[in-house]
């Protein structure tokens, strides 16, 4: 088993995939805590479907660089979704559900009508559940991904205290002169960037897992915000790494394996919390 | 010394006025209770004073060195907070966010201030405990300590005793009274507990059908208060 692993690790593209996977897992889990606590868990799901729709359109338009189209569209959707969250006419969760299914339907429709590919269902499946594209990343894409994820981590650390304040109590933060709207916008933009990055790793249907599971697991076990944040980052990185290694060795689908590991970690944390509480 | 003056305020949301012609002023060391029926616009008034929403008419002015973001605010608890994974210390420290300016992290000064206010609220022993595992009264004390980190001058309290049992309610009122008497903190409190308001406050602002503003003694003789006490008496029988 170690031998197989060593053989695979000798390939640079496998190493790239591991690096990118770890970075994406790290930044998605950091904001996960805020999103879960702000009751925005489903924004990841909604946005990833928007990204799927945008990707379909980019494919039809034959854009050479999908990212340039998908990223702005997803960021825009994120901003709009967080806006409607504050508007009482359409409730946040309903808005997310509507946008999410519409984008999914239109994306699939367009792919069906205009696809030039011979293997349509294969294309759709790989976009939804994560493709092997994480194994075909070029050096340039790895760098882009690394720079984006490290900026997310840096932003998070820099604004940690503000994010905590805005997550815990928006009204108090606003009354103290904190620019709540600006931070909500920042959260929206960052989460959109993460989702577009994570599509390569786990596909658009499974992204929510990367965002929600580590935060939920950490919240079971720890009681301070700092500990929850740090542990969810660590847990997410370990799960992603483990998931990717398992999928390399046993040839299982990358995205689904990572999510399965995340789920297992969550169950372990539940048991740990119960054991701790039972004492 | 006057700290806050509101003149001829018209308040509302989505273009619909809920309250108009509200004028009052608050001096340093005052204990003002804002009372009125549900839906009379008490919370809207508080949000407007805090600058969370704009008045539809009239003016709000802070005077004598009080800045709009130097108000300590004790909001009503939200569902999100009840289950929030954060320690007492983290939450109290977040009251210092207005002092950060452009700095990203809290310094020693803020940490000392947080420690001082935790001590004042009797929270030092609970410092490392998780907020979600505290009792309702302890949670309110945490939020009060946080509000004190934001100000030493004015506290705005939105129904600070709602959901507390009678014993803890008394403790909470006592704590607020001490802050007012001993530390000279100006108190502006929203309450629907008129009986307690009359007992503790120095001034009363009654909003709703008819607006009344004056000292507590004047309020006892005013029509809205008389009507209230008459109806209270009627209910009790």
Describe this protein's structure.
The complex is a heterodimer of chains A (279) and B (237). Chain A has a single domain (2-274), classed as ABC transporter involved in vitamin B12 uptake, BtuC. In chain A, 82% of the residues lie in helices and 0% in strands. Chain A contains 13 helices and no strands. Chain A is globular. Chain B is an alpha/beta fold and 237 residues long. Chain B folds into 2 domains: 1-66 and 154-163 and 185-237, Rossmann fold; 76-152, no CATH class. In chain B, helix 4 (108-120) crosses helix 5 (136-150). In chain B, 41% of the residues are buried. The A-B interface holds A 37-39, 158-162, 164-165, 168-169, 171-178, 218-219, 222-226, 228 and B 47, 50-52, 68-69, 71, 73, 75, 78, 80-81, 84-87, 90-91, 94-95, 97-98, 100, 104-106, 128-130, 132-133, 146-147, 150.
Uncertain stretches of chain A:
none
CATH H level, superfamily name of the largest domain in chain B: P-loop containing nucleotide triphosphate hydrolases
Counted by DSSP, the helix tally of chain A is 13
Figure out the total of helices of chain B: 9
- Alpha-carbon Rg of chain B, integer: 18 Å
Oligomer: heterodimer
Roughly what percent helix of chain A?
Answer: over 70%
Task: Draw up the topology in text.
The complex is a heterodimer of chains A (279) and B (237).
Chain A: H1 2-9, H2 12-37, H3 43-60, H4 66-86, H5 92-114, H6 120-129, H7 139-158, H8 160-168, H9 170-175, H10 180-202, H11 207-221, H12 225-250, H13 254-278
Helix pairs in contact in A: 2-7, 2-10, 2-11, 2-12, 3-4, 3-5, 3-10, 4-5, 4-10, 7-10, 11-12, 11-13, 12-13
Chain B: E1 2-13, E2 16-27, E3 31-35, H1 42-49, E4 57-62, E5 71-74, H2 79-82, H3 88-93, H4 108-120, H5 136-150, E6 154-158, H6 166-182, E7 186-190, H7 194-200, E8 203-206, E9 212-215, H8 216-220, H9 223-236
Parallel strand pairs in B: 3-7, 3-8, 5-6, 6-7
Antiparallel strand pairs in B: 1-2, 1-4, 8-9
Helix pairs in contact in B: 4-5
